Amino acid sequence: METLLDKRYRVIRTLGGGGFGETFLAEDTQMPSNRRCVIKQLRPIQNNPQIYQLVQERFQREAAILEDLGGYTDQIPTLYAYFQLNGQFYLVQEWIEGDTLTAKVQKQGLFSESGVRELLVNLLPVLEYVHSKRIVHRDIKPDNIIVRARNHKSVLIDFGAVRESMGTVFNSQGNPTSSIVIGTPGYMPSEQAAGRPVYSSDLYSLGLTAIYLLTLKQPQELELDSRTGEIIWHRHALSVSPTLAGVIDRAIAYHPRERFVTAREMLEALQFGSVSPTVPYNQPPAVNNVQPAPTVSYNQLPVANVQPPATLQNTVAVSPGSASHQPVNQSSGHRGILLGALIAGGLIGASIVIGFALNKTPQPVAESTPSTEASTTRQEQQDVTQSVQSQVPSSSEPSPSISSKTSFPPLPPTTQQEVDRPSPEEAVQNYYATINQGQYETAWNQLSPSLRSNKRLHPNGYLSYIDWWGGQVESIDVEEVNLVQANTETATVNARLQYLMKTGKQIPGSVRFSLLWDAENSRWIVSDAN
Ligand SMILES: Nc1ncnc2c1ncn2[C@@H]1O[C@H](COP(=O)(O)OP(=O)(O)OP(=O)(O)O)[C@@H](O)[C@H]1O
To answer: Which of 222, 240, 272 is at the close of a domain?
Structure first.
């Protein structure tokens, strides 16, 4: 007699299988059309009654998230049902008829630039939505994007969240913990491999997906800059425009703070071409577009310089455990981080689970995303301190809100302009007032040309500047400005600041400004800041 799963679903064929269970194509015998669906079977990696209870709770929570996500857009499969049977968990999802990007490339060869652009423009709003729900997909790759045959829209399948709930184990202290990291070697950035995905981890994976489509190179086949750890791929895609190359470069930057912070930002860079043509691979880390990803201690990522098997691209679940012991060496760590963990765990080929119980609190998806708590990591503070180095004084018109009185030495007034000459402290105050009013371009133009073109501070020019001020900082409070020295041509001012970040955090900072008097425009400009 024919068996029906959950007395309802007739399995047509197996679509795939991995460490967590199998995936089936089935038909729903209780729908008039016998509509087709995909059934994902999931097995907890540790099986005892206490764990089962916990997994069950997490599974339910994650299924609710999938339901919510799939209900919003036709670019995420709809969740039809979920159930438990014989100690296993099942998700019943919409079957997306079409080809994965992997299958498409196999059929039609390389994607054109416009094909890749179209794909990104199509997918980035979906990612923006997913991130707005505090979810990091965690397994974006060509296999997990299906182009729907009906309307050619790209659909994002295989969210990592539910599989992660299957990794619940008890650690040696008897506390439940999430024992695994979900992701695919090569497509997964280092912070994710260390168990701390942030939103831009998905942008990184999407960037590598784009490179695959443009070059047919899997991430492991691409070289790394031995000094910076950045991926070298331009030589395999010589006809790609500088704008697209720049967008991809930024998405795949090693460090999250150098990447686009949001999917929207990446989309806009793609649409409006505002990314500088190339971000040289050998650049030092950007300091002016810090990603406020406070849960990641980048200087604590593990390093393992083990080369991966070149073709490995299956999703894996690995222990995030060793993430906190060895200092990161950005010039060489990169891909080795995860792969070391994989190989150390005995990975050969397909999906595996290394069920190390870790002394680590559980990390449901929402907690894996950038935190909004008020504390600040040392790294973040450092980043902020560095990133404020490019602030400039504002226009010569004193702002009514300025409270610090001028202590500029009296000058012999020669013209009305000279009489109205702002003090250096006022210039600094005005500069930040301009930023608080959202007049970023005006503020940018108050930087000296050499400061504006300082690649260390502004790797992508003005874009880096607005990334920081417009994208990450909510407002800035100037707590104190002190004049260090001044003459008619130059001045030095110290400023003590408090950044209110969009995440809700408050971060202190201090900057020493070097100002130059711009007589032609009767204003101070910032020639240096540190
Ligand atoms: N909703 C869906 N609609 C259509 N096909 C799907 C859907 N979900 C998964 N698939 C396909 O089913 C197959 C198996 O999916 P599964 O999630 O088990 O992935 P896998 O490739 O076997 O493993 P993994 O990606 O976890 O390494 C894949 O080819 C995938 O494209």
So the answer is: 272
